[in-house]
Amino acid sequence: MIRRLCIIGVGLIGGSLARALRRHADRPEIVGASRNAAHLQKALELGVIDRFETDLGKAVAGADLVMVCVPLGAMEKVFAQIRDHLAPDAVLTDVGSAKACVVEAARRVFGTVPPFLVPGHPIAGTEQSGVEASFAELYEGRRVILTPLAETAAAATSRVREVWEAAGATVSEMSIEHHDTVLAATSHLPHVLAFTLVDSLACLGDHDEIFAYAAGGFRDFTRIASSDPVMWRDICLANGEAIVAMLERFGADLEGMKTAIRDGDGETLLARFQAAKQARDAFSE
Amino acid sequence: MIRRLCIIGVGLIGGSLARALRRHADRPEIVGASRNAAHLQKALELGVIDRFETDLGKAVAGADLVMVCVPLGAMEKVFAQIRDHLAPDAVLTDVGSAKACVVEAARRVFGTVPPFLVPGHPIAGTEQSGVEASFAELYEGRRVILTPLAETAAAATSRVREVWEAAGATVSEMSIEHHDTVLAATSHLPHVLAFTLVDSLACLGDHDEIFAYAAGGFRDFTRIASSDPVMWRDICLANGEAIVAMLERFGADLEGMKTAIRDGDGETLLARFQAAKQARDAFSE
Hints:
2 copies of one chain form a homodimer.
Chain A: E1 4-8, H1 12-21, E2 29-33, H2 37-45, E3 51-53, H3 56-60, E4 65-68, H4 75-82, E5 91-94, H5 100-110, E6 117-118, E7 120-123, E8 143-146, H6 154-166, E9 170-173, H7 176-202, H8 207-212, H9 216-222, H10 229-238, H11 240-262, H12 266-284
Helix pairs in contact in A: 4-5, 7-11
């Protein structure tokens, strides 16, 4: 295992990883970093990190793994601040929900894609955020996707894999383009739909009453609309092309559904609903 | 309390009401009815009903409350089968998710809106169906909407209210039109979106892999796509006008979101996401 892990941005994602690793016998020293001393102090008090630094350059010194857990829009700035302070053998990884933009940010800061950069994405989380919401079991049985490039050192990928596996996750590798397409479908599109639905209903005249008569299905369906707006703005900006493509596809399918409802075409509605139920039931098994 | 309740269609909704009422000291006799003897036998074995009839005319004989719990598309046929067999003092109610269509069906069968008809809708349920999924606590703390008309006898409405309150529900009254609009927004639209999303993704080439990388948020968001397709086809046909209106509104808002993503308009995205999160957080409190 690594000896020192620096987590930049100790919220739900970074905090949960730290908690999981601290249960291990040969746990690494865990240094928390961000510009917000109050957040870091909270993480320290909760026993999530061993110590913290608000200067990112100092924070990464001597770390053999640096995990950047900040919104995608802040990634480039963080890379720029740590660039000249990374240890010679350091591996750099991130947890961003889109990957092409992270590599582009790295290319701009480092002038090239560094062999020690391993883009990553844990497929886990809740609608909550902040270190208070973190818990050690978040990654147990969950998937983490790594998207190493041709330039990436195999040893760097192994080091990141080992840490996620130690937290209980199953690690897969895929191309950046494939990752960004798959996640646009299963995560980014649903979040945009949930945010849009709740916003749309909240703009109805009698929205207090509207929500008063909402049931459990609505509660589940809209849970992800409580997610962090800044994080999701950044994801939409970072993976916009793939998300727009999914929105086009979904919009066309929704238009077909609307036509079927308007035409009273029960046969089409039943066929589509049955196909959806079958796929959803298969997914949940 | 009533002395004899006839439940036509003993699934999740009817079965859960029966279970709740059977816990009461002065519980009514509960007669289950449907054309499917095997389902009824199952309900009897589970202790949900006291006895059953597959002949609807015989089933309603002597019942002081008849609760019709069948998909909306089957409502008219049921009304026709029981019309000449209702007791002189019987009250008739239903649990359909749209109400205008139920009144229209009654008008066609009875030639007028009968004073003993109280259209109703419990705002409760799960994505499951069938008597096996029923449970006595389903209605505790949940809302039931009754939509009595000018023609409805006040005593009939009181009788239905009393039964739902005995099951733990809070009963409200509103107009049929208002009910159908509110439910189109908070229930019918989300279901159409969930069915469409899952169907849309299932039609992608690599859908096994797509679903493999879906996380908890996707699971919650798509849970309602496991709902009963026949029931939801009927709801879409029965409340089509209100649902299409909501789809138009939602579609326009989604188009705006797509434009913001395409244009990289982070300001608009953040404002919309923040408004949605605020509304969703307020709803869940």
